[in-house]
User: Fold these one by one.
Assistant:
Number 1:
Amino acid sequence: MQKALETLLIGLSTGSIYALMSLALVLVWRSTRVINFAQAGQAMFSTYIGFEIATRSQIFWLGLLFAIVAGALLGAGVDYFFMRVLFKHANSGPALVVAPVIATLGLLGLIRSIVGLTWGGEFKSLTAPASKNGFTFGEVTIPFSPLDSLTIITVAVILIILALLFQRTNLGLALRASAYSPEIAQLAGIRTARTRTIGWAIAGGVGGVAGMLVTSYNFLTPYSLDLLLVFGFIAAVIGGLESMVGAVIGALVLGIGLTIILNYVGTSLVFIGGFSVLLLVLLIKPDGIMARGKVRRG
Amino acid sequence: MAKVVGGNTGSKVRKKLALFFLIGWILLIIGDRVDELRVYQGAQIAMYTIALASIVLLTGYSGQVSLGNGAMMAVGGYAAALTLNNLQTPIWSAFMMAILVAALFGAFLGLAAARLSGPYLAGTTLALAVGLPAIANQFSFLGGEPGLLFDVGFPPERFGEDFTQYKWFFWIATFIALIALFVTSNILQSRFGRTWRAIRGNSLAAELSGINASQLKVLAFSVSSGLAGLAGAVLAMTISLVAPGAYTLALSFALVTGAVLAGISSLPGVVLGGFILVAIPEIADALASSLGSEDKLNSYLPGLIVSVLLILSVIYTPNGPGENLRKHFHKKSAH
């Protein structure tokens, strides 16, 4: 019973980090119809910035703030200087379908090489904002640590801010409208191109938080966020790629599921487990758990 | 957009066969004239050619994006090594096994993902490319981090003492690449190739004319995986082992880059793509050493060149340099 509870808690903390990555992917997918594989690279770059600030100032939260800003700027920049140019040029022929995906891949490689050339490939370790040692109750120490609880709280705060932004502000309405139907949104007077860039910026900032949180558990290298991208993608697919709530639920389910495998089966099967979940969802419920009607676009 | 290609008439196939024989003969002569390093690079070009053909077939013809060709190559490499090491069968059977296992694996994966539109397949294959090396690390029968030996043996004695091991690799790789390209080119000009292009052009219209689009997409994915598996076995041969480190995400990226650079729907382009992929590390090395060879430069400069090329080509020549040239001349003649 105790082990089950621990698994649940740790699964929630792992899953909440996946939720941020999966949200970032869904935000971009909704507005641009592209799975932004460069998200791992953007998050990594932001995390390196956050890492530098956090290490120099000895304040994790200052680093986190800088990671968010760097991620948002980079996200907006990618959309403004890169995706717009891409959509202007690659608009015909066999490459039309594949060009955006391949372009984000190229961008991932570009950011990775730039980060590698700047910071090198060494393992960087970030001072975590809270202890990684589990809570102790009398004699018993459980694996769930203050850092885990802080992770959950941080993610919850971000999610609440995002929910308020999307539900209560004009910007959020514009974002939702442009994602739902760009043409109609444009007719209603929304500047869709600018709204899309803002969407990319939000996604970038959220990705930066995910990167900082992962890095407070593990080392930072130019490759260390690849797995986060994969699990974020799986979570997004579970949620149906369209729904932000779905992405969060998918991520929590995935986080708990993978922690169950980790605690009860073994490390070697974690990735296979995640991958099997992806295949199962694609086979059984390809539109995700949030799908209502049989509507598939794109 | 796509020119209509007639069926495979007998004389056409015979002509093509003669052409491939000629190319093979020329390559063998060249192989005798250049030094060891070039011979080795020749084998690598042959390997890339096969791998790129698998991408052209999948992405250029059937319009699906796979980012996991490196992973499919790993499947082929491991299948070949396990066959050769455990069954002691002749070399060719190891290569056949690589094709077979990778194609089956692809069919299985394709059933899940290829029925769906682009992003699902792209993401699933990317997940595979990220995770497969790690999986190989964890099963002892796959040899873990150091991997498995893959030894095709010394060249036959009748070729003489001067016939080096690398030249033997080059011969095998070239031979396999020529066969693979010949077969692929015939598949692409057959009914399947036309049907794939029809699906890529407009999958709804294709279905209305009686094509089972999802079945044919899975078939394309499976055939492409088989080709990638073959390339993986050839790669394993040239480095004499199969290890997770040989089939990285970077390999998958490089392959996509090579295919896009050379024109994603042009089969002859794959040879150019192969040359480019072999040339990039050389150029990067030269650049790195002229910039003062730091570790960082050596490890990240090739990736930088690859990504910049990929981005530039996907923005400015998304359908390959060939199309831009055609457009250019077309405009000229129109005025």
Note: Residues 133 and 244 of chain B are 5 Å apart (CA to CA).
Number 2:
Amino acid sequence: MRSSTGVRPAAVTARGWGWRHAGRPRPAVSGLELDIRPGERVLLLGPSGAGKSTLLHALAGVLGDGAAGASGPAGDSEDSDETGSLLIDGAPPRAHRGRAGLVQQDPETQVVLSRLGDDVAFGAENLAVPAAEIWPRVREALDDVGLGRLPLDHPTSALSGGQKQRLALAGILAMRPGLLLLDEPTANLDPAGVLEVRDAVGRCLDKTGATLVVVEHRVGVWKDLVDRIVVLQPGSATDSAVLIDGPPDRVLAEARDMLIGAGVWVPGYVPATRLRLPARDAGQLLLAADGLAVSRERPRRAGLRDGFRTIAPRPVQSGVSVQVHAGEALTITGPNGAGKSTLALTLAGLLRPVAGTVSAAPKLSGDAGTDPYRWKAQQLIARIGTVFQEPEHQFVTGKVLDELMFGPRHLGYGADRVDELLERLRLSELVEANPYTLSGGEKRRLSVATVLAAHPQVLVLDEPTFGQDANTWAELASFLSELLDAGTAVVSVTHDAEFSAVLGGTELRLRPRETAAADAPGPDLELPEGASP
Amino acid sequence: MRDALSLRGNHALLTRANPLAKFTAVTLITLVLALSIDWVSASVALAFELLLLPLAGLTLALLWQRGWPLILAAALGGWSTAILAPDAGSVLLDAGIWSISAGSLQLGIGFMLRGLAIALPAVLLMSCTDPTDLADALAQNAKLPHRFVLGTLAAMRLVGIMAEQWQTIGMARRARGVGSSGNPYQRFRAALGQSFGLLVQAIRSASRLAVTMEARGFGGAARTWARPSTYSGLDVWVLLGGLGIAAAAVAAALGSGTWNLVFLARQ
């Protein structure tokens, strides 16, 4: 017990524990034998479907009441099925509320209340901590996660993704749990956000001595913070649920190949990808932006006093001039809030520019006009394809095959391209499945395939590699490199330097929002080949 | 959406009053006005309410910005009453089946003023009351079940997120070739699909939020409150103010002989 903060680290014991979600034929976890000592820090690895999230939810005491989490279906507790025992300090997780604290993946739904201090106090209030004791706990927790400088009434909606995850951690810390459970807490964050959260977790553990169980694909981030790695495998009747268990260095040495095979991001390993062909002549111009200012907000009408004129929204980024050429990659980078996605969506003809123009060159526009924003939806998809960060936002049918055929059918194309994409992106086995039930990697591959099925000459991708395992990453990068060599232009918003290295081409680095105000000069263009000054 | 619900920057006097006291005062005024359709009680109440705007940190421009749907509805209600109410007195305008007489015009104006006088306190209340503080007061002072009150409060935060998601899903669907153009039937189908997409996302968000809340111990029987919701001297004034406006409205109407109970309305 290293703690001097009133935290008593928790112990976890699983004896032949198993769980089957309602409506699923096979258990998510079965025959789990595991002991975690108080204060131990465990990284949980394994292929998708190994039941990592299920285990965390069970330990948090939130399993089986209609909200099984991101990967599990919402189900009836009557139909789900538990075997064996899973105990925290010798009692079922539900028996002592607040003994374990859970941080999940999606920052947006980790926030409960609209003011910073209130949100941190929420957990402590629910545990009936005396009111006088709550505010000191709130301030301490905010200090511990590095948010102590913000006022207690700071609006939680104004926080970045990394800050929201640290806020969630503070909310948990104010409950003084003996067991911290982190379910891919950094999967949706940019590299700076990942380190922010990781370091905050490290500081808090050093201070409280609490037990940690974290699920993450990116081993490199957590390797030095944990003292044990447990690799799970999908449940079966004969095999143990724990595949390998031991200190990080030993597990990574012994199981390296197996982990790489399972798509885990093992430190020091970059998946092999297809190399791009040697550069040829510059591709033809497809799309040009000139003096572009972008915002997600729409123009609004002023009141009577101002004569009902149109008021333009304040742009998040302005003065952007850039060109997109056939067979060339353009990578948009920059800090959070710099308007990277907004710029990409404007280039893609989905948002109206606040100022400046986006114009399609004749090779791209064909018989349509030059302004992509004015194109009809079907004209647009045959020219510029956009893959959103969240694949689910783009699903429009209930079956994988229909999803792929949707674009071609409306454009009057045949199914040749669809068959090719099914094959190439390994979706052939899934044609009858419902898109919403696919795994994260499958959803990503499907969303790329559906957009490409309409034969666009320009492909725009918003953070395509966020939260993806190493296998999906490599497939995606190789596939895009092939597309580029075949003459498609690829515009991607990404924080992933290795991904942009595979694609090559030009990087457009946006400045932070503050300095991108009206009269500031435009963004820096690096490697200016193929881009206008 | 989120900005409209935020009170940041508003330091007006009434923001410091207990939400439940404000709520009670508003209820008093609304109840009295709901009793009678006459223009005297409504205009007296309306005049007092307009005088209170600065105390809630509101200006006429802000009032229009936040309350225009209610104000338009009141005006429309008054207009249709003036047209449709049975004629009494001299006829001022006759256009076939529609006619406006002195009597129906009076009724229409009364109706409109009453609508405004009832809508205004609600706008006033929401402009100077933080939703979190209102929830605290409803749970602690009015003793409503805290699971219900806090669940509603947390869900309200998701409404702002849904507004953003609606826009994102609209763009994401356009990028799939589902346009919001074409004939009305096609537009309707596109909007239906977009709503379905939003519904799926809303359910996902709600179930994740529910897990977040439950993982933070929400749902237990005992609970403490980090923000005690208390009353102060100001709240006495708020209640007296509400009572005063209601009483003045009734007294003026009785005095001028226009008091006209809805359930005894003369034909």
Note: Chain A touches chain B through 77 residues (CB under 8 Å).
